[in-house]
Design a protein that fits this description.
Blueprint: H1 10-17, H2 21-35, E1 40-50, H3 79-91, E2 96-101, H4 111-123, E3 127-131, H5 137-146, E4 150-152, H6 162-165, H7 171-184, E5 187-189, E6 192-194, H8 200-211, E7 219-224, H9 241-254, E8 259-262, H10 271-279, E9 284-287, H11 299-309, E10 312-313, H12 322-325
Parallel strand pairs: 1-2, 1-9, 1-10, 2-3, 3-4, 4-5, 6-7, 7-8, 8-9
Helix pairs in contact: 1-8, 2-9, 3-4, 4-5, 8-9, 9-10
The chain binds S-adenosylmethionine, 6-(5-methyl-2-OXO-imidazolidin-4-yl)-hexanoic acid and iron/sulfur cluster.
Length: 326
């Protein structure tokens, strides 16, 4: 069984991936039950605090200025606006609030407002997460001291496939920021996207990179590409649902203690597919009818789905203990 010291390789990951589907799901569910309450999932809420006009060229993203995006660039929103959205999210049951900015990296002049947002959201009793692009040493310390719980920075795909998707920064730049965040003592949230034209080996290599980080990320978002108009990936072929579920299961087995988040793309998934993803070990979702700019299932339909499955939202304070599962 995997533990924190396991060093994963493409081969060991592929051995899992190639198991008969029922065996893979059974193993994933067994690992899941050893570490989490199987009938609870974490609900996070996203807010775009700075939208559009981004200098990076990520081929999947509607917010890149290079993608002929329809989105007009906005400035960083007011702190009070972010806090009032956080309050609403908390009152609707979210326990984690994730603020995202369409930046290559934050500027020094933005830091006071970002720090005030983290402090304000924490004061509401929620976990905080930010995703702002690359961070330098000073910025990680400022965010850590403000009490930031998680920093999201996705590696997105394998090192090999990465240059096909993004050319304005390298895979190593992403890893540098992740290491800086980890060393400062902020928990890492890092995952990627399926459906950009990558192969199965790229998906597995992405998981291997994540699982072999000095400490596996506390949360691992797995996004299904939401093709965006006027981006190079607007016409990308959809991901096979069984392949997608297999990746969730492998992620669960490789990163036993991490929250595996079924992230973007749920609005295109059937309820049955989402239920299979939960069985495979996904235990976190974004709630609310918009992600950053793209659509997400309506709150009512999510609540109906969770009720049908007998799944409860996780309480604030994070981790459910194994005891809670028994
Ligand atoms: N600008 C920051 C950055 O890229 O690090 C933060 C925001 S960015 C939108 C966060 C992540 O959302 C990306 O790394 C990518 O994995 C995911 N994402 C963006 N657009 C997506 C899309 N169309 N479909 C699926 N996932 C997407
Ligand atoms: C992540 O992995 N997915 C979220 C969050 N981290 C920031 C973002 C999904 C964005 C989907 C496209 C959009 O809303 O523009
Ligand atoms: Fe910018 Fe982030 Fe979109 Fe890339 S994913 S273009 S960095 S907002």
């Amino acid at each position: 069984m995997a533990d924190a010291k396991t060093v994963w390789t493409r081969e060991t990951a592929k051995n899992l991936y190639d198991l008969p589907f029922m065996d893979l799901l059974y193993r994933a569910q067994t690992v899941h039950r050893a570490h989490f309450d199987p009938n609870r999932i974490q609900m996070s809420r996203l807010l775009s605090i700075k939208t559009g006009g981004c200098a990076e060229d990520c081929a999947y993203c509607s917010q890149s200025a290079r993608n002929g995006s329809q989105l007009s660039a906005s400035k960083l929103i007011e702190v009070e606006r972010a806090l009032s959205q956080a309050r609403k999210a908390r009152d609707a049951g979210a326990t984690r609030f994730c603020m995202g900015a369409a930046w290559r990296e934050p500027k020094a002049r933005d830091m006071d407002a970002l720090v005030a947002m983290v402090e304000g959201v924490k004061a509401l009793g929620m976990e905080t997460c930010m995703t702002l692009g690359m961070l330098d040493d000073t910025q990680v310390v400022q965010l850590r001291d403000a009490g930031l719980d998680y920093y999201n920075h996705n590696i997105d795909t394998s090192e090999r496939f990465y240059p096909e998707v993004i050319t304005t920064r390298g895979f190593a730049d992403r890893i540098d920021t992740l290491n800086r965040v980890h060393e400062a003592g902020i928990k890492v949230c890092s995952g990627g996207i399926l459906g950009m034209g990558e192969g199965i080996d790229d998906r597995l290599d992405m998981l291997v990179t994540l699982a072999n980080l000095p400490s596996p990320p506390g949360s691992v978002p797995i996004n299904m590409l939401m093709p965006q108009q006027d981006t190079p990936l607007a016409d990308a072929a959809p991901v096979d649902p069984i392949d997608f579920i297999r990746i969730i299961a492998v992620a669960r087995i490789m990163m036993t203690q991490s929250y595996v988040r079924l992230s973007a793309g749920r609005s295109e998934m059937s309820t049955e597919m989402q239920a299979m993803c939960f069985f495979a070990g996904a235990n976190s979702i974004f709630v609310g009818d918009t992600l950053l700019t793209a659509e997400n299932p309506e709150e009512n339909s999510d609540m109906a789905l969770l009720a049908k499955l007998g799944i409860q939202p996780e309480e604030a304070e994070g981790h459910s203990s194994v005891q809670a599962a028994q």
